[in-house]
Amino acid sequence: MLQLPSNLVARRLVPFALPSLPSAPLPSPREAHLWCVKPDELKDASLLQEYMKILSPCEKENVLSVKGEVLQKCALLSRVLVRTTLARCLWIEGLSSGCLFHARLDTDYRINPRSFKFKKNRFGKPEVEWQHNDVGFLPSLQFNVSHTSSLIACGITVNDPIGIDVEEKQRRPNANVLSLASRYFSPPEVQYLKSLVDSDSQKIEFIKLWTLKEAYVKALGRGFSGAPFRKFTIRFETRGDLVSEKLKTGEFRIAVEPVSDHETLTANWHFALAEITGSHFAAICMGIDENDTGKEHDLLKLKVWKTLPYMEDECLSDSEAVIKISGLS
Amino acid sequence: MASVAGTASAVSVRPPRRLLQVSNGISGLKSVSFTNQRKSSVSIRSAPRLRVSCAAKPETMEKVCFIVRKQLAIADDTPVTGESIFSQLGADSLDTVEIVMGLEEEFGISVEEESAQSISTVQHAADMIELLLEKKKAA
């Protein structure tokens, strides 16, 4: 039985049916789309019940096994966010490919979020399990999810492997950050943190580095043993062509440098860091095939939405709610 | 069901379900890996002739649960047991490494980074600690 947070009001009299999901554009090359949910904004118990119906049986079981109302709600929203984010982009006009997707389309030819199947790669990274018929017809959407108790985010791209990590700006580790860094970060990163004069800057930069490192490991999709934190360095470096000009924020490029020439720690990964709704850092890492588009030093693009799936969508890009910190055009 | 109560005598720990494989390397170092049904694993290199005993002692389990509760600020009425999965308790990866650092301080042991970031259940953590404590005694 789904535990409902005690502060929610259940409306039982009128059957609640979800409206249709608005569509969203596909990410362009070198672009990531970030869809965010704030669990605190979900106050309707009947909506929670409807959300449960979107999940697969296995996902429902997982959600129900989470202990505690708040965590259970987050687990549920996390799955709903992935499914609805993917479904939004795959709106198909007309019947051109309809015969192949008949079972999965709602009446207005939108993909039903329930219809996605997921699998894990051999290291445990979740991926869409595209059905046999989809190959060649549907864009290859890549996704990654991250959550804190106050924000759940799903990043998507077309083709490019993606890893994201979100963290509360205010997060302060219980342990001393220099101890944590000495234990888990690479030596240059520890030096960088030590060079910061005040301890609050150290904590903030620690959190930023942590999210960037997490995003990288998740983008690689090989688990933590595939990319131990100590074995690579995240650096903020200036773009070569701007060295003589005054650098604005956003002009810094974030680069990853493997400590040893480990086969799995390749360096064609691009990073971006942004601040969302004044409350969270979001780090994004994308694996770009340089032969496809752009030059190596081109920045990434990011679009951000805040959503309560089926209820409300708000585009946050180009507003104060999204502050680009590094790596973004 | 493993549970932790106030006194050590009331604690019972069910031996974890897992496959234990030990293989000999030419160098004489033995690599021991534990896998459980959830497909997460902890691998630790140990000195030769290690006698492996993997079930964590009740006192170890109790200390681990205490440290986990503290780090994650878990409410008293929420149970924390050997089978508790960190992510289901609300721990993210930063919480996990902080927990591991707390365990290192508490038990005077040192955990490899790769292992630290891969620990997914309380049982994992307790068993790994037990193994490291044994290794320390044998050294």
UniProtKB/TrEMBL annotation, chain A:
PANTHER family reported for this sequence: 4'-PHOSPHOPANTETHEINYL TRANSFERASE SUPERFAMILY-RELATED, PHOSPHOPANTETHEINE TRANSFERASE
Enzyme class, UniProt record, top EC level: transferase
Known EC number: 2.7.8.7
GO cellular component: cytosol
Domain 4'-phosphopantetheinyl transferase stretches: 161-243
Organism per entry: Zingiber officinale
GO MF term set: holo-[acyl-carrier-protein] synthase activity; magnesium ion binding
Keyword Transferase among record annotations: yes
GO annotation terms (biological process): lysine biosynthetic process via aminoadipic acid
Entry keyword set: Transferase
Pfam families, alphabetized: ACPS
InterPro entries membership: 4-PPantetheinyl_Trfase_dom (IPR008278), 4-PPantetheinyl_Trfase_dom_sf (IPR037143), P-Pant_transferase_sf (IPR050559)
Record keyword Aminoacyl-tRNA synthetase present: no
Protein name: holo-[acyl-carrier-protein] synthase
